[in-house]
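Students often ask what a 'structure token' actually looks like in practice. Rather than answer in the abstract, let us consider Cytochrome c-type biogenesis protein CcsB, a protein of 324 residues. Its sequence is given first.
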Amino acid sequence: MSGETYAHVSNLLIPTATVIYALAMVSHAMEWAIGRASVVKTAVVKEGVLVASDGQPVSDVPAVEEPESGERMDAASRIGLLLTWLGFLLHLGGVVTRGLAAQRVPWGNMYEFSITASLAVAIVYLIFVQRYKLQYLGLGVTFVIAAVLGLASLALYTPAGPLVPALHSYWLVIHVSAAAISGGAFTVGGLLSVLYLIKARAERKVLAGGTMSASLGRLPSAESMDGTAYKVLAFAFPLWTFGVLVAGPIWAEHAWGRYWGWDPKEVWSLVTWVVYAAYLHARATAGWRGRRAATIAIVGWFVFIFNFVGVNLLVSGMHSYAGV
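Now compare that with the structural description of the same chain:
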């Protein structure tokens, strides 16, 4: 096929994937909406452990759901995950055909960065779904991906074309692929941290004699999600370190004759690194867990999003080509 044909296929696949992700988001939203039944009505602290009125730890108390509601939640979850897989395959096809149309790696401008980075979010999510059963992140993940793809298609689209001279280097593949994968992991870790805060609040409410929805009751314990978020971010941090703070300066020296120039993109990449370094350091040395660690992780995620979107579009610098 010709380059124009590949470009046409990509331009069809990306919007179609956006619609499929949006349908997956709706399915996961229905799953959460269905779960309105109470799970645990009362709880007490017994030997330092939060337990329900029947003596079981709150994290081990099964959700008290009406059979019909439970089946509907399961069905909505399965449909959402299947739609996410379908959206991912279409998304992957759109990114690959975009690269074939341009005859290069598909991340030479902001549109291509967006479709590739959101694909990385889907990849990381689907991998961790298989390993850690993170289906409960489906609503947040599909919302993020659909929003990024929608923004890319409506506001950032650029016809496929050659790279600007500064991007002609094999370091492009190393630098951007590592940044995209670690960014996907930062997103998953940030969403986990948000859900941790929600579940921890619900557990405290149960401790005070309140109730918890069936949707929240299906989530792992807050402590478990805190640990999973740590594993995800511990995976992403060294990848970001290598891809952005090692490969990036080497590429900068190749393209511009200097390793570091305090360009806004470089500064905010360093700020992102510092926030996540603080997160890992606080957990390892100060023993920070729970709410404080989750707050740092969420701050890091917003810093990363600003670095990815705000700096490229709003700030003029050596990386301004990323916004064209």
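One point worth highlighting: Residues 3-323 form one domain. Ask yourself how you might have guessed this from the sequence alone, and why that guess would often be unreliable.
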